[in-house]
Write a structure and sequence with these properties.
2 copies of one chain form a homodimer. Chain A has 115 residues and is mostly helical. Chain A is 87% helix and 0% strand. In chain A, helix 2 runs antiparallel to helix 5 and helix 3 runs antiparallel to helix 4. Chain A starts with a helix and ends with a helix. Chains A and B meet through helix 1, helix 2, helix 3, helix 5 and helix 6 of A and helix 1, helix 2, helix 3, helix 5 and helix 6 of B.
Chain lengths: 115, 115
């Protein structure tokens, strides 16, 4: 890979790392980690989420019951204020990453759009 | 989104656009586009590929026959030199995008790894 591509990616990495949104996400992660009850609740939630994603990727059917269980778990963990704030920060960060990707992928989109 | 994040993403977009790999990809796309036989072959291949990807995302089963048909189509289109060169350039570009993503996603990986 050419040096300037590498450098530009490193600059963007640094900008993400230094962004308010990332620092806040980091702080909120630490808050959850430092609270054993919140951490255990959040770990369980993450595990459930990963199991469902794995099923989805494997093309396995996800039952109505599993969807309801997942929704109930989301509702439960969001009652914990630390987790709820962390999840909101994750959502903001994921939107930013999406916007960055849209910018970066413009050259390729232009190509594919023309064919 | 903060201005410096936006600027850094734009710089990376520019670096991609100005990279030799992107310019070559663009040239090879144009070569295929300018050759009606190659273009029609490549369009068919793209359509087949998208149909399979869509099936996969929907969690539909892909039959042994469909896999064999896809493999036969790949083997066929690769015999066209313009298409074969384009596909190799696409692979190189896709590897570069993967490497760039790995760099950019480091801050988030560090977070998720710690929880």
């Amino acid at each position: 890979m050419a040096v300037n591509l590498h450098d530009a990616a490193n600059e963007l990495e640094k900008a993400i790392r230094q962004s308010d949104e990332y620092k806040q996400l980091q702080q909120l992660y630490n808050d959850v980690n430092a609270d054993p009850a919140a951490k255990s609740m959040f770990d369980n939630f993450r595990q459930l989420q990963m199991n469902l994603q794995q099923k989805q990727m494997m093309g396995s059917e996800i039952s109505e019951q599993e969807i309801q269980q997942a929704q109930a778990t989301v509702a439960l963990v969001q009652q914990n204020e630390k987790i709820s704030r962390l999840m909101q920060a994750e959502q903001r960060m994921s939107m930013i990453i999406g916007e960055l990707n849209q910018i970066i992928m413009k050259p390729l989109e232009e190509l594919y759009g023309n064919l």
